[in-house]
Write a structure and sequence with these properties.
mainly alpha, Substrate Binding Domain Of Dnak, Chain:A, Domain 2, two-stranded antiparallel ribbon, 3 helices, 64% helix
């Protein structure tokens, strides 16, 4: 399925941001859940990003967008549960209190 240039640019921008976030976030030291669970969720986000980039390269834009949305949803949940540290310059990309 085709999308217009504006939405394609936005998808690419958001995938680029997602990649930057994954390279810069850290699991907080003092958390009240099993650290392995958080690591598994971050691995899932990485897998979703990889798949989203693959679908983007195949021009399967809807599938790419779906995976990107799943990945951001997991990251937002981890951030709202106060389980990950997000660099200040990236906090504006999250649905959390600034």
């Amino acid at each position: 399925m085709e999308i217009d240039k504006k939405n394609l640019r936005q998808l690419i921008r958001d995938l680029t941001r997602l990649q930057a976030v994954l390279e810069n976030i850290k699991i907080k030291e003092d958390i009240n859940v099993d650290r392995e669970v958080v690591e598994d969720l971050l691995n899932m986000v990485e897998a979703y990003l990889k798949d989203a980039l693959y679908f983007l390269s195949q021009r399967a834009y809807i599938e790419s967008l779906e995976l990107e949305a799943y990945a951001w949803g997991i990251l937002d949940a981890l951030a709202n549960l106060n389980l990950i540290e997000i660099p200040n310059e990236m906090r504006k990309w999250f649905k959390i209190e600034q």
